[in-house]
C-alpha cells in the first residue's frame, strides 16, 4: 500500500499541474511588460509616478503615418487604412479626420488672462525700459507677415498675446491641418512626400496579449490593403503595443525552442542511457509536477507569471529532472536486487544536500529587490522542491519492479574510468590541473568589462526603432524618454520651480544644445509671474493715464480702444490662469500629460527637453534647483543594474562561504573545499570565457554564476555520495549535467540578451564544473565522510 | 508669409488655368532677382483712418526675401528657407530657426517651394484662380479649409511683367493693400543684404 504522504503529494501535484494548465491556458496572466520586471528606479515617489504617467500617456495608443508622394494619394491611402482599422474592431477608436480648429476658439481660454501672459522676449523688452508704445503699435499694424492668432487689433494692439500664443510649444509640432486631416510634409522613401496621421486607441492594455494579437493582426491587414491600393505607400507606426508584441513573440519563440529542445533532448538521453520507457515517463512526471507547482506558486504569490520567467522555467526542465536521474541510476544499478525503500535511503542524503545548495543559490536571488529575479527564483525553488518531493514520495511507489535492462554496458566503462582516475590522479596532479586552469583564466578575466545597459532586458527590433525615430523627426513629437520632474508643496510653487528650471534651459536652447522644451509653465506662468507681467504692462502702457489714448489717436487707432483696453485690464484684476483651468482648456490637448497635479501631499509636473544635450549636464542642472529631479529611465535602470551587479557579486562571495560551511559540516573543512572546488573552477572559467569571447559582464551573468554554484556543487556531492557505485553515479552525474547544459545552453539562443548571457554563462560554467567534478574525488581527504 | 507667397507664387491649375499660370510665370521668371518700393495701406473698422506705410522689397529667388518698412516705423523681416529674422528699429533681432521651430520651418518650406517655382506647395494651402486681361493678370488665392481660413478670407495678386499689387482681405473685415513701383534688377547686393540672405 502506498504511504499516505505519497498519496497526498500525488494529489497536490495533480492539482498543481491542472491549476497551472488552467492558469496559463485559460486566464493567461502572462505579463509581457518588461518594465514590470524592474523595481522602483527613481529616487522620489513623484518621479516614479511621473515615469508611470509618461508611459500611460503614450501607452495605450498606436500612431501611424501614412506617406505618399502627393496629397491626394496620401489621403486615399490613409482613408483606407483608417477604415480597415475601424472595420477590424480591434481598436476602440480610430482617428483620421480632426475637426476644423478655429484659432480664436482654441485660445479663448487664455484670452481673459492675457494681461498676465507674456513671452520671455516681450518681458525682457518691457523690463529693460526700451519699450516704445508707438513703435510697437506701428509694427503690429504694418507687419504683413503676422498671423493674428491673438485676436483683434483692439483686443491685442501690441501683439503681446499674439506672441504668447505663437510661442506655445505647438510651434514645435510639424503638423498641418489640411482639409480636415493632420499631415506632415517631409520625405517618404527618399522623395518629397506627405504623411497623414492616423491614431488609434487600443481596446485594452498594450501588454495584454489578446489586445496585442488582435491589434497587430488588424494593422497588418490594413497595411496589406493599403499596399494593394498603393504599393509605394509608406506605413510608419509607433506605440508600446508593437514593442510589447515583439518582446512577447520573441519570448514565446524562446519558450517553444527551449521547452521543446530540452524535452526532446531529455527524452533521447534518457532512452539512450536507460533503454526503458519507465524511467523516462517517471522522470517527465517529476518535471511536470515541478513545473505545475512552480507556475501555481508563482501565480499565487505574484498574481501573474512574467514571460521571462516562463522562458527561464522552460530551462528549469533540465535541472528538475536531475533528482529523478539520481534515483534511476541507483535503480538501474541495483538490477534484480531492487528494493524501493533501500534505494530511497541511499539517495536521500545526496538529494537533500543538492536541494539545499540549490535553495541557497536561488534563495540568495530571492533577496534581491528585483521583482523579475525574485519571481524567477521563487519559480525555481517551488519547481525544484516539488520535483524533489516527487522523487522521494512518488517514485518509490511507482518504481517497484526491478530494472529489466542492463546499465552495466555503460556503467562499467564509466566505473573503470573513475577508478582509473581515483588511482592515478592524486592530490598533487589534481592541484596542478587546478592551478593551470586558473592561470589560463587570468587573461580572460583581464579582458572582462562590465556592462549595465538596460537594453539587455529587451530585444527592440531595429525596424520598429527606426520607424519610431522617423515619426519623431517628421512630427516633432517628443516621446519623453528623459525629463525633469518638478515637485513642490503647492501648484504655484511647482510652477515657480519650473520657471527657475526653464530659465536655466533657455541658454541651452539658444546655443542649440537643446532644440526646445515642453513645460506647463509655458502655458501657465506662475501666479507670481502673471502678476509681474500685469505690473510690467500697467507701467509700460500707462494704463491709468491719458497718454495711451493720445498715442492711439496719433497713430490712427480709435481712441476709445485705449479706454477699452484699460477697462479690460482693470476688469481682469485678480484673475489667474491656473493649471486646473488650463488642463480643461483646448490648448492642453497635446500637453495635458505634463501636469501631474496633486500627487499625495505635493503637486508635480513634468518638463520634457528635446535635443542632444548631455544627460549629465541636464542632471546637474536639475540638481541645482530644489524640487527638480532629472529622470532618464534608461540611465536609472542601468545604474540599478550596475548597483545590483556589484551587490550580487558580494552576495556570491557570501553564498560561497555559506555553501562551504554546509559542505564542511558533512565533509570537514578540507573535504568541503574539495567538493566546492569544481564549481569554483566552473565559475572562474565561465568568467574567463566571457572575457575571451569579448562579451561584457552583466547582472545576469553574475546571477548565472550563482546558479553554477548552486547546481554545479551537486555533481561533486553526487559523485562522492555515490562512490560505492561509481559507474552508475558517474553516468547519472553526466546525464544530469547533459540535461542541464542542454536546457540552459538553449537559453543562450534566447532573443532576450539578458537571458542569452545568463544561458551562455551557465553552459560554460556547468560544463567546466562537471568535467572538473572528479577533481573533488582526488582532493577529498581520505578521512572525509563516506 | 502670405504676401511672400503671393509675390512669388504662381500656383498650379489644370487646363485653361494652367495655361494662364504658365504665361504669368513666364512673365515673372524673366525677373528672378528684383527690387521695388512699396506703399502699403491698412484698413480696419478699428482704425480712425487708414494707416499708410512704405518701404523696399528685395527678392532674390535662390535665397529669400527682405521686406524692409521704412515709414512710419523701421523694421526688417528676412524670410529664408532655413530661418526667419525680424529686426526692429533698435536693431534687436528675433531669429526663428526652421530646424527648431516647426512654424518657422513651415513658413520657410512654402517660401522655398515658391522660390524654386514648385507650384505644388501652394495648393496645399490655397485654391488658386488665375485671370488674364491682355497683359495684366490677377490671381486670387483662397485658403483651403484649415486654420488659415480662420483669419484670412482671400488674397489677390495682380501685375504684368512684375507684381504690381497685393490685396489681403482678413476674415475680420480688415484689409491690407500693397502696391509696388520702381521695379529694377536687384543685383548687386549690398554686403548687409548678402549677409541677411546668406548669399556668399
Describe the structure.
The complex is a heterodimer of chains A (786) and B (200). Chain A has 786 residues and is an alpha+beta fold. Chain A folds into three domains: 4-29 and 245-407 and 420-449 and 636-779, no CATH class; 61-98 and 181-203 and 208-238, Alpha-Beta Plaits (2-Layer Sandwich), CATH 3.30.70.120; 103-174 and 474-632, no CATH class. In chain A, 66% of the residues lie in helices and 10% in strands. In chain A, strands 2, 3, 4, 5, 6 and 7 form a six-stranded antiparallel β-sheet that branches. The relative contact order of chain A is 0.13. The model of chain A has no long low-confidence stretch (mean pLDDT 84). Chain B has an eleven-stranded antiparallel β-sheet, with helices on both faces. Chain B has helices at 2-8, 15-29, 102-115, 120-123, 191-197; strands at 33-43, 51-60, 64-71, 75-80, 83-87, 93-97, 126-133, 136-143, 152-159, 163-170, 175-185. Chain B has a single domain, classed as Lipoprotein localisation LolA/LolB/LppX (outer membrane lipoprotein receptor (LolB), chain A, Clam). The longest helix of chain B is centred in the N-terminal third of the chain and has 15 residues, at 15-29. Classes of the chains: A alpha+beta (786), B alpha+beta (200). Chains A and B meet through helix 7 and strand 4 of A and helix 1, strand 4 and helix 3 of B.
Amino acid at each position: 500500500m502506498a504511504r499516505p504522504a505519497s498519496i497526498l503529494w500525488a494529489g497536490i501535484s495533480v492539482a498543481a499541474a491542472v491549476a497551472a494548465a488552467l492558469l496559463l491556458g485559460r486566464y493567461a496572466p502572462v505579463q509581457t511588460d518588461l518594465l514590470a520586471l524592474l523595481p522602483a528606479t527613481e529616487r522620489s515617489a513623484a518621479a516614479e509616478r511621473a515615469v508611470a504617467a509618461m508611459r500611460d500617456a503614450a501607452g495605450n495608443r498606436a500612431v501611424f503615418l501614412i506617406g505618399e508622394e502627393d496629397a491626394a494619394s496620401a489621403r486615399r491611402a490613409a482613408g483606407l487604412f483608417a477604415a480597415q482599422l475601424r472595420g477590424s474592431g480591434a481598436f476602440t477608436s480610430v482617428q483620421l479626420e480632426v475637426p476644423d480648429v478655429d484659432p480664436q476658439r482654441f485660445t479663448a481660454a487664455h484670452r481673459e488672462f492675457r494681461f498676465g501672459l507674456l513671452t520671455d522676449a516681450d518681458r525682457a523688452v518691457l523690463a529693460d525700459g526700451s519699450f516704445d508704445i508707438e513703435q510697437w503699435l506701428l509694427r503690429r499694424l504694418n507687419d504683413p507677415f503676422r498671423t493674428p492668432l491673438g485676436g483683434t487689433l483692439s483686443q491685442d494692439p501690441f501683439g503681446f498675446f499674439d506672441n504668447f500664443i505663437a510661442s506655445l510649444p505647438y510651434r514645435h509640432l510639424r503638423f498641418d491641418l489640411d482639409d480636415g486631416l493632420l499631415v506632415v510634409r517631409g520625405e517618404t522613401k527618399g522623395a518629397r512626400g506627405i504623411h497623414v496621421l492616423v491614431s488609434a486607441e487600443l481596446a485594452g492594455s498594450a501588454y495584454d496579449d489578446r489586445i496585442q494579437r488582435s491589434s497587430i493582426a488588424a494593422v497588418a491587414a490594413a497595411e496589406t490593403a493599403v499596399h494593394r491600393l498603393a504599393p509605394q505607400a509608406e506605413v510608419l507606426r509607433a506605440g508600446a503595443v508593437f514593442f510589447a508584441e515583439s518582446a512577447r513573440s520573441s519570448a514565446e519563440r524562446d519558450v517553444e525552442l527551449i521547452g521543446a529542445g530540452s524535452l526532446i533532448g531529455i527524452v533521447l538521453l534518457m532512452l539512450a542511457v536507460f533503454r526503458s520507457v519507465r524511467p523516462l515517463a517517471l522522470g517527465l512526471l517529476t518535471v511536470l509536477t515541478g513545473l505545475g507547482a512552480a507556475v501555481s506558486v508563482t501565480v499565487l504569490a505574484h498574481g501573474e507569471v512574467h514571460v521571462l520567467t516562463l522562458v527561464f522555467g522552460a530551462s528549469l526542465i533540465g535541472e528538475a529532472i536531475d533528482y529523478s536521474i539520481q534515483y534511476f541510476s541507483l535503480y538501474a544499478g541495483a538490477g534484480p536486487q531492487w528494493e524501493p525503500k533501500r534505494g530511497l535511503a541511499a539517495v536521500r542524503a545526496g538529494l537533500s544536500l543538492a536541494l539545499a545548495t540549490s535553495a541557497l543559490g536561488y534563495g540568495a536571488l530571492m533577496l534581491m529587490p528585483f521583482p523579475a529575479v525574485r519571481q524567477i527564483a521563487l519559480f525555481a525553488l517551488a519547481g525544484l522542491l516539488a520535483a524533489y518531493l516527487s522523487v522521494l514520495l512518488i517514485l518509490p511507489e511507482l518504481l517497484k519492479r526491478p530494472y529489466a535492462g542492463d546499465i552495466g554496458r555503460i556503467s562499467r566503462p564509466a566505473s573503470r574510468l573513475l577508478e582509473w582516475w581515483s588511482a592515478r590522479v592524486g592530490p598533487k596532479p589534481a592541484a596542478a590541473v587546478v592551478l593551470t586552469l586558473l592561470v589560463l583564466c587570468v587573461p580572460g578575466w583581464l579582458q572582462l568589462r562590465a556592462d549595465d545597459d538596460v537594453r539587455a532586458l529587451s530585444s527592440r527590433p531595429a525596424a520598429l526603432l527606426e520607424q519610431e525615430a522617423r515619426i519623431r523627426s517628421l512630427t516633432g513629437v517628443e516621446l519623453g524618454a528623459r525629463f525633469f520632474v518638478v515637485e513642490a508643496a503647492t501648484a504655484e510653487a511647482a510652477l515657480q520651480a519650473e520657471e527657475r528650471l526653464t530659465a536655466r534651459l533657455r541658454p541651452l536652447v539658444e546655443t542649440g544644445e537643446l532644440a526646445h522644451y515642453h513645460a506647463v509653465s509655458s502655458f501657465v506662468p506662475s501666479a507670481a509671474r502673471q502678476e509681474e507681467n500685469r505690473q510690467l504692462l500697467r507701467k509700460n502702457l500707462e494704463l491709468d493715464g491719458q497718454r495711451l489714448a493720445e498715442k492711439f489717436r496719433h497713430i490712427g487707432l480709435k481712441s476709445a480702444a485705449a479706454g477699452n483696453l484699460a477697462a479690460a485690464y482693470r476688469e481682469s484684476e485678480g484673475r489667474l490662469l491656473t493649471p486646473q483651468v488650463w488642463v480643461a482648456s483646448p490648448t492642453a490637448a497635446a500637453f495635458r500629460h505634463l501636469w501631474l497635479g496633486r500627487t499625495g501631499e505635493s503637486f508635480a509636473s513634468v518638463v520634457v527637453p528635446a535635443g542632444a544635450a548631455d544627460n549629465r549636464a541636464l542632471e546637474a542642472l536639475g540638481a541645482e534647483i530644489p524640487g527638480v529631479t532629472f529622470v532618464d529611465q534608461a540611465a536609472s535602470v542601468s545604474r540599478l543594474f550596475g548597483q545590483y551587479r556589484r551587490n550580487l557579486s558580494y552576495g556570491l562571495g557570501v553564498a560561497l562561504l555559506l555553501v562551504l560551511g554546509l559542505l564542511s559540516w558533512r565533509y570537514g573543512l578540507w573535504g568541503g573545499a574539495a567538493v566546492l572546488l569544481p564549481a569554483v573552477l566552473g565559475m572562474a572559467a565561465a568568467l574567463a570565457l566571457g572575457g575571451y569571447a569579448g562579451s561584457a559582464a552583466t547582472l545576469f551573468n553574475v546571477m548565472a554564476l550563482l546558479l553554477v554554484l548552486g547546481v554545479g556543487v551537486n555533481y561533486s556531492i553526487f559523485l562522492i555520495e555515490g562512490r560505492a557505485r561509481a559507474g552508475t553515479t558517474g553516468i547519472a552525474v553526466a546525464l544530469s549535467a547533459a540535461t542541464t547544459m542542454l536546457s540552459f545552453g538553449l537559453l543562450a539562443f534566447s532573443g532576450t540578451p539578458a537571458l542569452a548571457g545568463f544561458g551562455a554563462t551557465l553552459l560554460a560554467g556547468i560544463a567546466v564544473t562537471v568535467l572538473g567534478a572528479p577533481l573533488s574525488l582526488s582532493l577529498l581527504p581520505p578521512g572525509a565522510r563516506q | 508669409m502670405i504676401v511672400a507667397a503671393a509675390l512669388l507664387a504662381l500656383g498650379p491649375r489644370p487646363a485653361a488655368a494652367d495655361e494662364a499660370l504658365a504665361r504669368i510665370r513666364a512673365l515673372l521668371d524673366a525677373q528672378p532677382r528684383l527690387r521695388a518700393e512699396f506703399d502699403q495701406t491698412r484698413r480696419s473698422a478699428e482704425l480712425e483712418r487708414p494707416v499708410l506705410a512704405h518701404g523696399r522689397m528685395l527678392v532674390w529667388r535662390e535665397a529669400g526675401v527682405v521686406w524692409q518698412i521704412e515709414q512710419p516705423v523701421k523694421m526688417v523681416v528676412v524670410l529664408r528657407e532655413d530661418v526667419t529674422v525680424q529686426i526692429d528699429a533698435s536693431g534687436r533681432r528675433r531669429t526663428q530657426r526652421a530646424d527648431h521651430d516647426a512654424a518657422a520651418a513651415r513658413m520657410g518650406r512654402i517660401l522655398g517651394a515658391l522660390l524654386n517655382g514648385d507650384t505644388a506647395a501652394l495648393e496645399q494651402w490655397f485654391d488658386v484662380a488665375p485671370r488674364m486681361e491682355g497683359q495684366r493678370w490677377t490671381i486670387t488665392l483662397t485658403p483651403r479649409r484649415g486654420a488659415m481660413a480662420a483669419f484670412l478670407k482671400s488674397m489677390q495678386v495682380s501685375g504684368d511683367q512684375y507684381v504690381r499689387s497685393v490685396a489681403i482681405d482678413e476674415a475680420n473685415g480688415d484689409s491690407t493693400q500693397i502696391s509696388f513701383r520702381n521695379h529694377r534688377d536687384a543685383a548687386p547686393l549690398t554686403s548687409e543684404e548678402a549677409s541677411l540672405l546668406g548669399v556668399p
